[in-house]
Specification:
Helices cover 24% and strands 27% of the residues. The protein contains 15 helices and 30 strands.
């Protein structure tokens, strides 16, 4: 990928979804292999990934494999083998978090630094670039100024990647340990337990309730649709869609949405280009709000919003999909209810199988599956739900309704919904003529400048109607159905519009297309592995706490080689047994509840009375402390390892040892002389 190219990067849970992502305009797809991806339940066999690679490469699109967990020592060899298998399957790049991989005998495949690497500063980005990463997935929390600073601090050929759509992790990626502490499911090892989506009671230092059963750590979904041009100006070149657990309809719809946005920008800015070949058309109108979402936010890209809008990032009422606005209930009967759609939303059609939602009096989201609907005229409808009407809490006249499943719209995506074609120019030229034969040359050139020729001979035969025959020749040459090509232009260079049999023309065209296919494969350029800088670049810090996620001896050796003097083991080594930050986040509960000291500045009568005191989060027996670091405007969710999890870990270590597979990651802090007064 070149610095002037824009890459739309789509997710794939499986190969079928990956193929449709390419068909719907993705320049690249990221997918999990057999193991070691940060989405443990989104795995694929390498033989299937090879099939996806072959399809993507037809459009000069790329496939990236996620190898972005942290590894125990006993897993490194399997991870190394996976990397080589991916290379042999034609995968274009590996997305990596664990620096221990860089110390192994890895294939010459391009490396991308995962968002789990927690890339927030120019110094961290420059370091990763200098140790051999070609593409950096920046933290979602960055604003445009911070992105621009990273761009200025890295080389032009280092590609900056940024999430533009999908679910948001409330913690800085790679800096969340709640799952490991409470359930033994590590987000750094592909098993996030989504503690951030749970409801919590929020109390202050005196035990007073601030919020009751609110999902205060649950973010709305990321949507940077309005910021694409600004992100390009800041230096982003790869635009990533979240969703390796998402279904086919989501990937089709969201990929199509951002394809159209990027194509519009490319039309306006000729100095930029798409990172792959082909133009995509769609048989549906993309609409991001149709898929599962928790409403939308552009997070911190434009900076933290002012105090008058503290709720702009939080989905605090529910982590579920409430859907798009619909209308209101007009009548409730024994076996059905009637509703009116909002006329300001335009013509809305309800369909059997639609899903509706509403908030009950406690603001809990209630879902209604509609078995059958009847149109009563104008904007009035009668709905017969699958469950008994009496079972729906607080269903009443005047209640606001939303729709979170539009069956009619989804049916469009169940079938073929896109067409991606590579433009070609065809030229038919008369090379020679004798008494009996006409010698012709058909040349086909694709939009990347790759060209193939095919010569053939037909009997001399003059056309009875010149104009009609010329049109027939152009039409015959343009028949590229069943291929990935579409005729952008057909030119004829003939002394006269000869009659050429359709069979001869078809054979010549098919031969030229086959030759072009082969030439495109031969000319496909593999991404090069970036050589690390020499001498080895120095890591920006000389010490790493558990937040460095160092779980194996190779990662320890890597950081030592790059100047780090003290390296504590990762949290997953079960050495941090006291209270520590289990989550570090740019989201601030105090800010969202208008309790931030910064919000009180300038307000008469409250100066100095509001302090960033700790708050408590309570969910059943689980208690977490919220502490606030106001200088960088960050929140720490503090807790400790549950005794049951520690015992489970000890049992796992014993079981592995008895099976002859000892876990050799760090068990204590390395004993190294330290002069810098570390805690």
């Amino acid at each position: 990928m070149y610095p002037h190219q824009l890459e739309l990067l789509s997710p794939a849970r499986d190969v079928a979804i990956g193929i449709e992502a390419i068909n719907h305009g993705a320049d690249a797809v990221y997918i999990g292999g057999p193991a070691f991806g940060a989405r443990k339940n989104a795995c694929n066999e390498m033989v299937d990934i090879a099939r996806l690679v072959a399809h993507a490469h037809r459009f000069n699109a790329r496939i990236f494999l996620t190898l972005n967990t942290i590894f125990r020592d006993d897993e490194l060899e399997a991870a190394r083998r996976t990397a080589w298998e991916a290379y042999d399957a034609g995968v274009d790049a590996l997305i990596v978090q664990d620096m221990g991989l860089l110390m192994l005998d890895m294939p010459p495949i391009q490396l991308h630094a995962s968002t789990q690497s927690d890339i927030r500063t120019p110094e961290k980005a420059a370091f990763l670039q200098d140790v051999g990463f070609s593409q950096l997935v920046l933290a979602r929390e960055l604003d445009l100024g911070q992105i621009a600073a990273i761009r200025a601090g890295t080389q032009p050929d280092t590609i900056l990647e940024f999430f533009v759509h999908g679910a948001l992790c409330v913690a800085y990626s790679g800096q969340c340990y709640i799952g490991e502490a409470h359930t033994g499911r590590s987000a750094n090892r592909g098993e996030c337990n989504q503690a951030c989506r749970l409801p919590y009671q929020v109390t202050d230092a005196q035990g007073r309730f601030i919020a009751h059963d609110k999902h205060v750590l649950s973010m709305k979904d990321n949507d940077q649709s309005a910021n694409m041009a600004a992100l390009i100006d800041a230096g982003i070149r790869s635009f990533k869609i979240e969703g390796r657990y998402k279904d086919m309809a989501y990937v089709k719809n969201i990929t199509a949405h951002y394809r159209l946005l990027l194509d519009e920008i490319l039309e306006q800015r000729p100095e930029l280009a798409a990172a792959s070949a082909g133009k995509t058309s769609f048989s549906f109108t993309p609409e991001p709000q149709q898929n599962f979402n928790r409403e939308s936010t552009d997070y911190f890209v434009r900076g933290r919003l002012e105090a008058h809008d503290p709720l702009h990032i939080g989905a605090f009422d529910t982590p579920k999909h409430s859907g798009m606005p619909l209308g209101w209930v007009s009548k409730v009967a024994a076996d059905h209810f009637e509703l009116e759609t909002d006329p300001e939303l335009g013509d809305i059609t309800l369909t059997n199988g639609d899903g509706l939602t509403y908030l009950d009096l406690q603001r809990n989201l209630v879902g209604v599956h509609v078995n059958r609907v009847e149109h009563l005229g104008a904007n009035r409808w009668r709905a017969f739900p699958r469950e008994a009407v009496q079972s729906f809490k607080d269903l009443r006249k005047g209640l606001t309704l939303r729709r979170n499943r539009d069956s009619l719209w989804l049916k469009q995506l169940d079938k073929k919904s896109s067409d991606r074609k590579v433009g070609v120019w065809l030229s038919l030229r008369e090379e020679a003529q004798d008494a009996q034969n006409l010698h012709l040359r058909l040349e086909i050139t694709d939009e990347n400048g790759i060209s193939e020729k095919n010569t053939f001979t037909v009997q001399v035969n003059r056309a009875s109607v010149a104009t009609k025959n010329e049109a027939s020749l152009r039409e015959g040459l343009s028949k590229l159905g069943g291929t990935i090509y579409t005729a952008t232009e057909v030119s004829l260079h003939l002394s006269e519009p000869w009659f050429i049999p359709a069979s001869a023309l078809n054979t010549a065209r098919r031969s030229a297309v086959e030759a072009l296919d082969a030439a495109r494969t031969t000319n496909f350029t593999c991404l090069e592995r970036k050589a690390p800088a020499q001498p080895p670049a120095a890591f920006p810090q000389d010490s790493l706490s558990y937040l460095g996620n160092v779980l194996n001896t190779q990662a320890h050796a890597f950081y030592t080689q790059h100047g780090v003097k003290v390296i504590e083991p990762a949290y997953e080594a079960y050495q941090e047994l006291g209270e520590v930050s289990l989550m570090i986040t740019k989201h601030c509960v105090r800010w969202s509840m208008s309790l931030c000291p910064k919000q009180a500045k300038g307000v008469v009568g409250v100066k100095g009375t509001i302090k960033a005191e700790p708050l408590m989060l309570i969910n059943g027996k689980e208690k977490l402390t919220l502490k606030f670091d106001c200088k960088p405007c960050e929140m720490h969710v503090v807790g400790k390892m549950k005794p049951g999890q520690l015992q489970a870990f000890k049992n796992e270590v014993k079981a592995a040892a008895s099976a002859g597979v000892p876990m050799k990651f760090f068990k204590t802090r390395p004993k190294i002389a330290v002069t810098e007064g570390l805690p």
